[in-house]
Write a structure and sequence with these properties.
The chain is mostly helical and about 100 residues long. The protein contains 3 helices and no strands. The longest helix is centred in the N-terminal third of the chain and has 32 residues.
Length: about 100
């Protein structure tokens, strides 16, 4: 029972970390893909916006890691961790891009 809980926590953490890294990577790419009007200095700065976006995206990334880790153990523990990372990134990417677009970041 304890081993199962530890595996779920590991999968959730893996999905969460990969999801946040994906969001962080997208934030740097987003500035180069979509040109934004120069800001006048009003409002929150770049670090605050990234923290808000990562706070919104965190539960989705964790859920993606948990769902990815529940795939049957055909390839073993390593494959479950890889799928947890993939699901965390895939569920996080559309939400993060939508938030970037919506905020006008």
């Amino acid at each position: 029972m304890l081993k199962k809980i530890v595996n779920h926590l590991l999968n959730t953490t893996t999905g969460w970390v990969v999801g946040l890294l994906t969001t962080l990577g997208l934030s740097f790419l987003w500035l180069n893909i979509i040109p934004v009007v120069e800001r006048t200095g009003q409002g929150p700065g770049l670090p605050v916006i990234l923290l808000i976006i990562m706070g919104i995206v965190s539960p989705v990334a964790g859920a993606g890691g948990l769902f990815g880790g529940m795939i049957p153990k055909e390839g073993g523990r390593k494959d479950q961790t890889i799928y947890a990372a993939i699901f965390g990134a895939f569920l996080t990417t559309p939400l993060a891009l939508f938030i970037f677009w919506y905020i006008g970041f």
